[in-house]
Write a structure and sequence with these properties.
Length: 155
């Protein structure tokens, strides 16, 4: 399998099996990210915006404060405030002050945001076939378990 990585990176040798694994993870993540970005762009949003809409939809209609959104993001964005501002401009999210703590700003998905999410979600779910068409259910579980062993101790 290293032949594919060698071809993709135009590299003849690697320092270690660990380096090969790390590079394969990064190349695969980039490949999947591009596919997700492409699917989201058809609906006028980015993958990060899709992730935020998905998070906010899970707590509709209450919404989440910025810190909780960051904690739930797959890839925490450095400037969530601007991300929320862009979604507000698109009419996909709204911001309000918490009734419990007037200092706390809360973001909530709008009806329009829910509609965009509902249109985008099937296209994102279709990307699951990139995994299921190429791996057995056992291999899928093994990859998930193995990857969790890498980042799990740090959560």
């Amino acid at each position: 399998m290293v032949l594919i990585l060698k071809k993709r990176l135009k590299q003849k040798k690697f320092d270690s099996a660990e380096q090969v694994a790390l590079l394969n993870i990064l190349v695969t993540a980039n490949f999947l990210r591009m596919k997700i970005d492409n699917a989201c762009s058809k609906f006028g949003i980015t993958a990060t915006q899709f992730n935020m809409l998905r998070i906010l939809n899970g707590k509709y209609p209450e919404g989440y404060p910025r810190r909780e959104i960051i904690n739930r993001m797959i890839e925490p964005a450095p400037d969530v405030t601007r991300l929320i501002d862009r979604l507000i401009k698109q009419g996909l999210v709204e911001r309000f002050t918490s009734a419990d703590d007037r200092r706390l700003s809360v973001a909530r998905i709008t009806k329009k945001g829910i509609k965009v999410l509902e249109k985008t979600k099937p296209k994102i779910n279709d990307l699951n076939s990139l995994i299921s068409d190429n791996l057995t259910p056992g291999e899928i579980r093994k990859i998930s378990d193995s990857l969790e062993k890498i980042y799990g101790p740090y959560i």
